[in-house]
Amino acid sequence: MAVTATAPATRPSAATSRTGAAAVTAALCLLVAALAIADLTQGTANAGAPEVWRALTGRGDAADASVVIASRLPRAAAGLLVGAVLGMAGAALQSVTRNVIASPDTLAVNSGAYLALGLTAVTGVSLPLLASSGIAFLGGLAAAAVVLGLSGLGAGTVRLVLAGSALTLGLTAATEGMLMLFPQETTGIYRWNQGSISQNGFGGILQVLPIALVGLVGLLLVARRIDALALGDAAARGLGVPVRATRVTVVVFAALLSTAAVTLAGPIGFVGLCAPALVRPLARRFRAYTRTRGALPATALVGAALVLGSDVLLRSLIPADVAVAVPTGVVTSLVGAVFLIVMATKARDTAGTTDTERLRIRSRTAFLTATGILAAALVGVAIAGVLLGDSKLLLGDVVNWAQGNAGRTITFVLDTRVPRVLAALLAGAALALAGTLVQAVTRNPLAEPGVLGVSGGAALGAVLLVTTVPAAGSWGMAGAAFAGAAVSGAIVFGLAARGGFQQNRLVLVGFGVATGSAALISMLIILTDPFNATKALTWLSGSTYGRSFPDVVPLAVVLAVGVFLAVQRRADLDLVSLDEDTPRLLGLDPARGRLAFLLLAVLLSATAVAAAGTIGFVGLVAPHAARALVGRRHVRVVPVAVLLGAVLVCTADLVGRTVIAPTQIGAGLMTALIGTPYFLHLLVRSRSH
Question: Are residues 297 and 426 both part of a single domain?
């Protein structure tokens, strides 16, 4: 999905182009000024436009002046600065990579800074703002380097989004694990990660302003080289431009700009993606915006308008006392999610569907051996899960409990532990089966319910129920999760089906839906009471804590039906996973079969999320490993993938609740830590095919 600028039939003259660009720039300045003025008049205090004017001119009372000068004016200034630097960072990254999806969000800059600051906070060392900026800069730059190295500069949007989102999940899981282990030391880091432009005075703004200026000046100094890169690597080298050095330099300066933003306000999502995309149509009409020195100021203004506009919109739609608790980053992430989905549906997909795996044929002996080993591993990890924990038990205790002869303490332990083990086993199996179905139907080896937003939609439905009806039962949770998954699945698969499930559209729409779901979940958690918020956060970490036997019944029923249907329709799965023509030649309606399998995958993902929270990467890892072990025939892939998924999640749950007992880490965090390296390995391996 590369951007190609096509010349219009009649080019405007240089004078007309400059005049039009100047008029557009002036209009953007007026828009930003109007939004800043509107932002100054909003807040919890009873200080409207007249009071703000009197405070600014020195004629107001002390209370109004204190509110305006110490709170509202710094907030508006922070919005201006954050939006401007994120817009410029996104424009620079998109220019140097020739990739319209490149931004601080998709390059995992924010999550890298988050982890770096978390590691520093764990040490207990209190650092000044500038030192924290330096640490955040190193973390963000390292993450961007990893993503760009894995995706390949200019290699396409799919690789960039997948590498960035996978690394973001892994780094965020590591940071959230530290938050759980060191809650007191990392309290400030958690608040920072919510992303808010609210300020207490101008101190922070004045400290990060020099960092932003260094990044801006650096980009302006290499602007001619950036323009040369737009002509292609060969042409740039012909003009004497050091291509690799220029790219590295631009990424460093863009990371510096992003650092200024995240240090001041935390992660403000997708401004760096949307601002350059909004300026891009202007560049087709006005040549002044085709050059970096003209585009950077325009993207800065658009970025500032996005941040201030989001803040104004938020405070206009909901009461001020509620709006003050909702971070601006939540609103910008929602806007960015919608924007990304629209971009994905309008862009022409040139990537096609590719399966990097070679056709493997395995013997029946290999299948039986793998199944036997995995079944033994499943029994072993299930027994270990029941016996191990904050209190260790013996097999005799389990036998007595099963016969109803155990003591009160052992009965209590096993009544809480056995459902947890069952929930982990069944959730892992269901997610693995869902991933197998999705990969077969889309013929995309990197597709899975989490990456495609289905799990995020299920989580949104379940969190909505948790925060509004805390007493809801297991069937209610399953129903809410299925409703959320069904809506997100309909959006993702419905829009992707128009292009035959091409990789670009499928992944980008899924990424947008997952981002929007995460933003809405954050808003729900922030607005609900602390008890429900804690319950939702614990559940979102993929924790099986507090599960009971009734909670796993819906999942067991759906999984049993899903396995039966997948095995029964195994031949249809094989045909659908080949191409579009073969099923039709053999009398199978591929559209109907695809829809049925996708509905089953959505149902499996939803019930797994309802029973065990959000657990990522299982739907990716298990099918891949199964095909490597037993080949590509689904009569063998399905049982092996189901066993692998069950073993993986149960092991993650066991490790998470025993290694640092009595403190526990959710299975979702553990699978993210395990699955991220594997996912990135798949991306590296696929580059050689």
Answer: no
Whether 407 is in a domain gets the answer no
Domain membership flag for residue 357:
no
**Residue 257 and residue 85 in contact, taking contact as beta carbons nearer than 8 Å:** yes
Q: Considering the domain boundaries, does residue 410 fall inside one?
A: no
pLDDT at 375: 93
The H or E element that residue 7 is part of is none
- Print the domain residue range for 239: 39-315
Furthest C-alpha separation in the chain: 92
Residue labelled with tokens 């049925």? 596
Distance CA 139, CA 114 (A): 8
**Per-residue DSSP letter, 9:** S
Q: Which of 315, 341, 370 is the last residue of a domain?
A: 315
Domain for residue 670, yes or no? yes
Give the number of domains in the chain: 2
pTM of the model: 0.77
pLDDT of residue 491: 85
**47-56, 397-406, 426-435, 620-629: lowest mean pLDDT where?**
47-56
- In three state form, how does the secondary structure of 67-99 look? HHHHHHHHHHHHHHHHHHHHHHHHHHHHHHHCC
- Tell me if residue 239 falls in helix, strand or coil: coil
Q: Which residues contact 237 (CB under 8 A, 6 or more apart)?
A: 243
CB 470 within 8 A of CB 546: no
Residues 6 or more apart whose CB falls under 8 angstroms from that of 454 comprise: 434, 438, 485, 488, 489, 492, 510, 601, 602, 605, 606
Ramachandran quadrant class, 638 (left: phi over 0; alpha: psi -120 to 50; beta: rest): alpha
Of 276, 297, 315, the position where a domain reaches its end is 315
Residue 146 sits in the same domain as residue 283? yes
429 and 307 both lie in a single domain: no
Average pLDDT estimate for 645-668: 80
Measured between its terminal Cα atoms, the distance across the chain in Å is 20
Look up residue 331 and give its two tokens. Answer: 């609103």
| Residue that the structure tokens 């590369």 belong to | 2
d(CA 309, CA 256): 24
Give counts: helices (H), strands (E), the chain. 30, 0
What CATH number should be reported for the domain holding residue 51?
Answer: 1.10.3470.10
Half-sphere exposure of 232 (CA within 13 A, CB side): 4
141 φψ region: left (φ > 0), alpha (ψ -120 to 50), beta (else): alpha
Same domain, 311 and 438: no
Q: What is the spatial distance between Cα 29 and Cα 23, in angstroms, rounded to a whole number?
A: 10
Helix axes 549-568, 634-658, angle to 10 degrees: 160
Q: How far are the Cα atoms of 145, 166, 289, 483, 670 from residue 151, in angstroms, in the given order?
A: 10, 12, 28, 34, 24
Q: What is the pLDDT of residues 256-309, one digit of tens each?
A: 888 888 888 878 878 888 888 888 888 888 888 888 888 899 999 999 999 998
Question: Which of 284-317 are b and which e, b meaning 16 or more Cβ less than 10 Å from the residue's Cβ?
Answer: eebbbbbebebbbbbbbbbbbbbbbbbbbbbbee
Per-residue pLDDT of 487-507, as tens digits, reads 888 888 788 776 555 656 777
**Considering only CA atoms, which of 74, 75, 519, 521 is closest in space to residue 312?**
75
Specify whether 299 is located in the same domain as 433. Answer: no
**Residue owning tokens 């104004």:** 312
Check if the beta carbon of residue 98 is closer than 8 Å to that of residue 3: yes
Alpha-carbon distance 475 to 550, whole Å? Answer: 8
Length of the chain counted residue by residue: 689
Q: How far is CA 271 from CA 419, 451, 481, 628, in A?
A: 43, 21, 30, 40
